[in-house]
Write a structure and sequence with these properties.
This protein is mainly alpha-helical and 146 residues long. It is built from seven helices and two strands. It has a single domain, classed as Winged helix-like DNA-binding domain superfamily/Winged helix DNA-binding domain (Arc Repressor Mutant, subunit A, Orthogonal Bundle), CATH 1.10.10. Helices cover 48% and strands 5% of the residues. Helix 1 packs across helix 3 and helix 1 packs antiparallel against helix 4. The longest helix has 17 residues.
């Protein structure tokens, strides 16, 4: 599990990246996604439905159904996915969890975390899913292109 994002968020990112490699509008079954990404079926289903609820994905029920990106991959940032699942609290909150931490009442890592947090946020809003998917080297993702 990552230090910054929940397991749900990690799975959401992986799923969206996989879908970004599919032809635009092509539905991908949850069965294919869970098999390729090795993510539990019901857990991924809930995550993908949540993303569909935000408009990042579209879903279609039935034998030819599945999930597809709800917008062009170049128009979806990594921050969009993170925000849909985990929210954006990490951009404001103390990394150590102190509610009173602020510039006037800083914790021991306040300044360091502030700089790192800003860099992470900048990366998340600059990186779009199309660029990231294209750069994926994992076998599971390369096979999505075929």
């Amino acid at each position: 599990m990552s230090i910054l994002f929940s397991r749900q968020c990690e799975y959401a990112i992986q799923g969206v990246l996989y879908l970004a490699l599919k032809p635009e509008g092509e539905m991908t079954s949850i069965k294919e996604l869970t098999k390729r990404l090795d993510i539990p079926y019901h857990f991924l289903g809930k995550i993908l439905q949540r993303l569909a609820g935000t408009g990042l994905l579209t879903s279609l029920k039935g034998p030819t159904g599945g999930f597809a990106l709800g917008r062009k991959a170049k128009d979806i940032t990594l921050f969009d996915v993170v925000n849909a699942i985990d929210g954006s609290d990490f951009t404001r909150n103390c990394v150590m969890g102190f509610p009173e931490c602020s510039g006037k009442n800083p914790c021991s890592v306040h300044d360091t975390w502030g700089r790192m947090r800003d860099e992470i946020y900048d990366m998340l809003i600059r990186k779009n899913i199309a660029e990231m998917a294209k750069d994926m080297k994992k076998t599971e993702y390369r096979s999505a292109r075929s």
